[in-house]
Amino acid sequence: MKYTIGIIIFVLGLFTASGQVDYPSLSPKGMISQIVGNTKVEIEYERPSARNRSVFGELVPWDKVWRTGAGNCTRISFDKDVILGGQPVKAGQYSIFTIPNPQEWVVILNSDTELYGSFNYSPEKEVARFIVTPQKSDRYYETLSFDIDLIPNNARIYISWENTNISFELVTTTDKDLMNYIDEFLLTKKEKDGNRYANAAEQLYFLNSRFGDALALCEIALEKHKKSDDYSKGFVYRVKMEIYEKLHLYHKAIEIIDDAIVNEKSESEIKYWIKNKERINKKI
After folding, report:
1. Residue 86 region, left (φ>0) first, then alpha (ψ -120 to 50), else beta?
2. Are residues 149 and 208 in the same domain?
3. Are both 37 and 166 inside the same structural domain?
4. What is the number of domains present in the chain?
5. Per-residue pLDDT reduced to its tens digit, 248-262
6. 157 with 178, same domain?
């Protein structure tokens, strides 16, 4: 009898355990992790949904500090110093709050990252504060959404919900650090790795900046690659060709291609250079 009762209790226990479900969060957690230039940016937030409610001006009151999320405060972190919305911000983690208004929003970074909502919010702990203009979004956002749109080495952060979005610029130290490195270590030929010169020249090419220095870096790279493989030199020739082409110096670009063909041994690579020569010749 005791054995039978034990089996029944055991079976009922299994049934109860297997019948349990985890209730889904009404505001599930979201996270964005993005490398922006030389900087890692992370945003952690809880994502409330509209659920047939009018959001701004009702669910989220005008002119009051808002957690810009649900539950715990929304957090944003940077592993290097940045400029956010025109304000300098040191590397670290911060809470992000906003004050919505039909005409303008205030965006705030606060050093307190343990707040639940905006309760016990302390203005004394604010790190940065700036104003942005809200825009009508191009679609309806049922759920609060953060997004990071990459601009070369920088970014724009978007916050969207219902029919509204705001955005603000994130500027990293990437370009400044790159230029300092080029001036201090590359143009002075202190760097021993030839690839670093060619890579820096390519960076300047994509930034549409300092083309004269980019070409000088290519020349140094070729000096460094005198005894190296054809691929390394081929990469330098390609960067030089692209710079001259961007500057509309097509005859110079053709000269680089001819040099590349002379130094190339691979038939497939020679075909690559011939195609580029034909393409650029059409521009002359």
Report:
1. left
2. no
3. yes
4. 2
5. 999 999 999 999 999
6. no
